[in-house]
Amino acid sequence: MILEYPLRKISKNNRVGNALKSVFEEPISDSITIEIPISFSLEGNEWTNEYICKVDSGAYMTLLPESAFSKLKPTRWIPYQLYGVVNTPECQINCKISKVKAKLKSPNNKESPIFELWVSFAESDNIPLLLGMLGILDKFKSTLNPIENIWTIEF
């Protein structure tokens, strides 16, 4: 099964784009991001509402807010600290790591098979929602095609 997602363009007309253009005297191209709806299994064959996560191949694992931990109520988890670009206390995110069951949904309402996914639940809701490598991007074939403006994942 293959799910397809459109790429979302991020305008080059922003602070960094304008700064690069003024120094290098040449425009940069628009950037892209991929946003994926993902749902998680609850007790009794119920599923959460969709969380919209940005695909982040630089993220070791998926990152969700504290409110998702409260909804999913995992019974087994470990405390951990994640770090951003720099391993300093200012970049630290305290979290709880657990394994959950998840499924993706494409814009044309196709659903992926259910799969297990390691998730870091931040101890805050003030975080970006990221779909990371562990349990999904390292297990299934995905293809980024900026020419056709599409990202696919094959289960």
Describe this structure in words.
- It is globular, with a radius of gyration of 17 Å.
- It is mainly beta.
- It has one domain: Beta Barrel (Cathepsin D, subunit A, domain 1), CATH 2.40.70.
- Helices cover 14% and strands 41% of the residues.
Briefly summarize what is shown.
The protein is mainly β. It contains three helices and twelve strands; from the N terminus they run ββαββββαββββαββ. The longest helix has 10 residues, at 15-24.
Tally of helical segments: 3
| Main beta-sheet strand count, sense and barrel state | 7 strands, mixed
Q: Architecture, according to CATH?
A: Beta Barrel
Note the overall shape. globular
Rounded Rg:
17 Å
Number of strands: 12
Helix content: 10-25%
Question: What is the domain tally?
Answer: 1
Give average pLDDT, whole number: 93
CATH superfamily: Acid Proteases
Examine the coordinates and then state which fold CATH places here, giving the name of the CATH topology: Cathepsin D, subunit A, domain 1
Give the secondary structure arrangement, pairings included.
Elements lengths: L1 E5 L1 E3 L4 H10 L6 E3 L1 E6 L10 E5 L6 E3 L1 H7 L5 E6 L8 E13 L10 E8 L7 E2 L1 H5 L3 E5 L4 E5 L1
Parallel strand pairs: 5-10, 6-9
Antiparallel strand pairs: 1-12, 2-3, 4-5, 4-8, 7-8, 8-9, 11-12
